[in-house]
Amino acid sequence: MSTISKACLDPWSFLLIKADGNVCLCCWSEPIGNVNSADLDAIVSGLKAQHLRSSLLTGELLKCCSQCPARDDTTTEKLCADVETYLNDTKKLYAVSQGKLFLKPKPSKHWLKRIWTSKLVRPLKKMLSR
Ligand code: SF4
What contacts 24+ positions apart, CB below 8 Å, involve 39-46? Predict the structure, then answer.
């Protein structure tokens, strides 16, 4: 088992349904099923999806991942820890961007004030004041 993997949480956080119905867990991997012939829940939890996820966790990368132009290398240990953090994040403190896990910034008081006083919020304020 390799200890090198890809810094990629896409298969746990991202879903792409193409116009032809093909379902992918990132922009670079092969489809894991097609919504025209199978239920989406079954596709997402199916063998192909599990295989892609487990290959990343074990470092036994599929060709698409080993040649992936979009994600950096990382250790399997770090990826496993990030996946566990993401899946157990009941408070929704984390987000995934470009495959990487990051702690969401807390909005500052300054930003909250700017949002609250912006034109965009006026219709909402009007609704709340009724
Ligand atoms: S490493 Fe690349 S090919 Fe593999 S799941 Fe992530 S984005 Fe897709």
Answer: 44/15
Ligand 1 atom nearest 62 alpha carbon:
4
Output the residue whose Cα is nearest ligand 1's atom 7.
26
Lookup: tokens for 93: 């403190």
Binding-site residues, ligand 1, Cβ < 6 A: 6, 8, 10-11, 26, 28-29, 64-65, 68, 70-71, 99
Residue pLDDT, tens place only, 42-92:
999 999 999 999 999 999 999 999 999 999 999 999 999 999 999 999 999
> How far, in Å, are 86, 112, 126, 130 from residue 25 at the CA level?
16, 34, 41, 44
Q: Using an 8 Å Cβ cutoff, are 64 and 93 in contact?
A: no
Q: Distance (Å, rounded) from C-alpha 126 to C-alpha 122?
A: 6
